[in-house]
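Structure tokens please, single chain.
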Amino acid sequence: MRALAGCLLICTACGGDGGDTRQVDASSDHDDGPRPASGLTVTWATAPQLPGQVSDALVVTSAKVRVKRLEVIGDAGPGDTTRRDVQLVWSESAQPLPITFAFASPGIYSKVTLDIDGDLEGASYEILGLIDDGVGMAPFQIRDRGALAIDIDGYELRLAAGAHAQVPIRIELGEVFADLTVEQFHDEGGVWMLDDADPYINELRDALARAFRRGG
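Here you go.
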């Protein structure tokens, strides 16, 4: 195995866009404003942090996830805690910003559901980076049009009237990539590709769905 930290530095330096470090809002409405005084805020984190080394053999330089529908579920019944068409982007110059539901009803919130789906018009998720192919570090791409339905339980967040609470989501990527090697990919013009045509894609989908957890 090769040390990948140097490869990551080279790749991110080449893949930048002039040093722009702005974040990308994870909702359809861009909002860089101050933290709200009340409501619920969904936050995002990955472990390991992206972009970065996710296994002995892989470095992820960018990732994009298309969430068709996100809902924070509580005992108050349906309310203003649903967001559609969310795009999550991790790259050298972008990270997903929190999603805020400023008018969430008071109550106990216990679950988050996500429908990850590109609606066949595009990939449900795309991951780019470098992989050790036994010769050196070569580019790879994961592009999957399959849908993922994700339930994240165990929050038990009590939201009082006029109060604010965070709903942290953590994606455990180390488990997703732990067993992924170049043997699961196919060579497509010098890029190692993993997509709907590869048998391993079903196992990868299951691993990615399990990786979404309640954050700390």
